[in-house]
TrEMBL record:
Xref: Gene3D superfamilies: P-loop containing nucleotide triphosphate hydrolases
Species name: Agromyces ramosus
One Pfam family hit: ABC_tran
Signal peptide: none
Residues covered by the ABC transporter domain: 9-260
Protein name: ABC-type oligopeptide transport system ATPase subunit
Residue intervals passing through the bilayer: none
Record flagged with keyword Lipid metabolism: no
Keyword Nucleotide-binding listed: yes
């Protein structure tokens, strides 16, 4: 295992419990339980699991959108467990970790031009507050680096395709020059050919600058293409963890096997998934 002191993000025995819905007689919801992982500089760690397995809740705790119920969650050694109290802290956190959502259409301000969206992020997150022209030039360079030439700067989000909008969301994240980008089902809504383009873009970005990805997905084919390591979550718990290529080539845990069996590929037989027993939740929580 790598040296923990090198990790940018460290999660140790992380837990998130949501109270039972008001007026219901139900139990509190344990969305994340005893989850441990590390994210290292310039690596892509995937969090994999079916809907409701707790992936997004882990990400939301990392960016401060949810508080931590128990356990440790640090970014560069600073705890994120208690949430942010001051605007200055919120900005500092955002400079370290940026979030790209599945649906860029709802996360981008539809009334702002593309150039202004990225320029605002540059102005907000660059230390020493850059001048207007400097912020604009930096924004144009970033847009260019995600494959959106200068003609896109004057357009509005609704004038762009889904893939182009996701490029804008990535550009806006890059404008903060973060150490980590959380990509939460960031290609799930795109056609396969557009997905491939965005995944290539993410690989190119990582080749050019030091940035780590926490790549959240239910899609193992996508995860296989983009990540070096993965953790597999089922009902809030990490049930499998390791090098992506190895885990997918030789999945041992029944849940990982059942997930992999659901990925269409040459020779894939729909009946196979039914024959595989789906794992019961495991109390094991290996660190990744
Ligand atoms: N704010 C909340 N209040 C109550 N329960 C929540 C809340 N947010 C998430 N949950 C519950 O926590 C569990 C994990 O949800 P989470 O969204 O983290 O899973 P996920 O793996 O990201 O799934 P999806 O891909 O569908 O978002 C689910 O049972 C969900 O209903």
């Amino acid at each position: 295992m790598s040296n923990p002191s090198e990790a940018i993000v460290v999660a140790r025995n992380l837990q998130k419990v949501f109270p039972a819905p008001r007026g219901s007689k139900g139990e509190p919801i344990v969305a994340v339980d005893d989850v441990s992982f590390e994210l290292h500089p310039n690596e892509c760690l995937a969090i994999v699991g079916e809907s409701g397995s707790g992936k997004t809740t882990v990400a939301r705790m990392l960016v401060g959108l949810e508080t931590v119920t128990a356990g440790e969650l640090t970014v560069r050694g600073e705890s994120r467990a208690k949430g942010v109290k001051h605007l200055a802290d919120r900005r500092r956190w955002a400079r370290e970790v940026q979030y790209v959502f599945q649906d860029p259409y709802s996360s981008l301000n539809g009334r702002q031009r593309i150039g202004d969206i990225v320029e605002s992020s540059v102005a907000l997150h660059t230390r020493g507050t850059p001048g207007k022209r400097e912020a604009r030039n930096t924004a144009r360079d970033i847009l260019d680096s995600v494959g959106l030439g200068s003609q896109f700067a004057e357009k509005f989000p609704h004038q762009l395709s889904g893939g182009q909008r996701q490029r804008v969301a990535i550009a806006r994240a890059l404008a903060a020059n973060p150490a980590v980008i959380v990509l939460d089902e960031a290609v799930a809504a795109l056609d396969v050919s557009i997905q491939a383009q965005i995944l290539n873009l993410l690989t190119d970005i990582r080749a050019e600058r030091e940035v780590s990805y926490l790549f959240i997905s239910h899609d193992l084919a996508v995860v296989n293409q983009v990540s070096e390591r993965m953790i597999v979550m089922e009902r809030g718990v990490v049930v499998d963890a390791g090098a992506t290529a190895e885990l997918l080539a030789n999945p041992v845990h029944p849940y990982t096997r059942s997930l992999r069996a659901a990925v269409p590929r040459p020779g894939w037989k729909p009946l196979r998934r039914e024959r595989l027993a789906v794992a019961s939740p495991s109390s094991e929580s290996p660190a990744a």
